[in-house]
Amino acid sequence: MMNSIKIANTKDEVSEIIKREIILGNLKANQTVTQNDIAEQFGLSRMPIREAFNELVSQGFLIKLRSRKLVVANISSLTVINYNEALCSLELSLFDNIDVPKYIDDLKLILIANDFPPKDKILRFHQYISEIIADHFIITMHYNMLNSFIIPCVKYFDFHTKSSVDELKLAVDSLGKNDMISFKNKLKKSNEIILDKLINQ
């Protein structure tokens, strides 16, 4: 009896696969993509590919030309650097609206917890920042920003996870001293370690 083959058949699964291939550089900048090519290349179900394409256009990973052709966007090092600056500025602004001392211990616990691997600590740290606000719109916006590059890079790249977590610990220390400039710089450094392959591609 043959084993069943799992075929990605939802828009989210297909979108994740295409985004992964763009971030890993397997789909190149300005490369034309079609439903048939993607279906054949990755063994995907054709039905959700159009929806996935639309989502990736809205996220900036694909560009729809006037000819209706779709091409892969050019993700340059400047794109990633500007993204990191924007993400850190958003996270910094979130802390401007809360009682910071109330959450310092929770942030520290996330980063020193022995039962989470370092990559989980990084993601939980960023996720917790927007959860503090408890505003659905902000949480969604923040998650979408994280999901552009940080989350995929944590999933797909090997990087010095301890160094990234250590920078976050220093960021929390700066937050405790109300040194917001150092806090932002440490956040940026932690993210740069994760994004290094995209920044230096």
Automatic annotation (TrEMBL):
- Sorted alphabetically, which InterPro entries does this protein's record hold? Tscrpt_reg_HTH_GntR, WH-like_DNA-bd_sf, WH_DNA-bd_sf
Taxonomically, the superkingdom here is: Bacteria
Q: Which Gene3D superfamilies match?
A: Winged helix-like DNA-binding domain superfamily/Winged helix DNA-binding domain (1.10.10.10)
Keyword DNA-binding in annotation? yes
The keyword DNA-binding is annotated on this UniProt entry: yes
* UniProt keyword terms in alphabetical order: DNA-binding, Transcription, Transcription regulation
PANTHER family, sorted:
HTH-TYPE TRANSCRIPTIONAL REGULATOR LGOR-RELATED, TRANSCRIPTIONAL REGULATOR, GNTR FAMILY
Protein name, please?
GntR family transcriptional regulator
